[in-house]
Known about the structure:
The structure is a single chain. By secondary structure, the protein is an all-alpha fold. The protein has one domain (1-265). The protein is built from 13 helices and no strands. Helix 2 runs parallel beside helix 8, helix 6 runs antiparallel to helix 10 and helix 9 packs parallel to helix 13 (243-265). It is globular. The two termini are 19 Å apart. The mean pLDDT is 88. This is ABC transporter permease. The chain crosses the membrane at residues 82-103, 124-149, 161-182, 189-215, 242-263. Keywords: Membrane, Transmembrane, Transmembrane helix.
Amino acid sequence: MLNLLRMDLYRMRKGKAAYICLGIILATIALVYFLLFLMLTPTGQAAASRLGMMDFVEMEEAKALFREINLLLVFRQSNMDGGFFALVLTIYFTIFVCADFKNGFIKNIMSVHVNRWKYIGSKILSFAILDIIYLAASYLFTFLVNLLMGGNIPVTGFSSVLFFLAQAWVLTMAMLALVLLVCMLTRSIAAGILAAVLVSSGVIVTLLNALLGLFHVNGWLKYTLYFSLQDAPEVYQSPADLAGFAVGIVFLIVYMVIAGTALSKKDI
């Protein structure tokens, strides 16, 4: 499996897609921070006022908002809680995996590596590494942009940042495993991207939450991947705060097992 892992990491490093996806994530963070700069700083408010983007009342509301936010919240709101980070990552993962089937490279791989579980493990491990790099780079970029803009937004404690990023990593890995399952079953980029959009944006679970909430039977939805990431706590206070880790690990294992079984049962 190490040979497969090295090959996948080499493909990522030499290809442009990994860098483009990271650039998209960082550009989104920069855009959000620019909007915050306009709302929360005197210089930005003056510029926004001249452009007709904000009036006096909106400026006062922005000042109240400034007292309530921190850097981790900005990071979450810019790309994590709404599912944008997961969307970019899962779409890239779909294209990366399905390309093996589209160009027939999977046949060459399986002729050398008969154990198909190694293929599943290689894909998950390679993107586990990429996921860590993306999360770390994204938060570091948020920190640096805040620093360059004068450090107007309070910095969150390192333990809180690490606790949240660890949860985000586990939960996004579970989302990748779900997309991998869809790719193994359909071997279709279109189906994989559709699954990526649905799982990362939370469209289905959000609709279910609204519908089942009418009958007060939506409590179990907090254990879905989307809501576990959206509602992930930033500080550990009790064992209940580890629920996100449990949800992510369980779904990751289940989806990986089913994906491996599907690959083993179907002809290449």
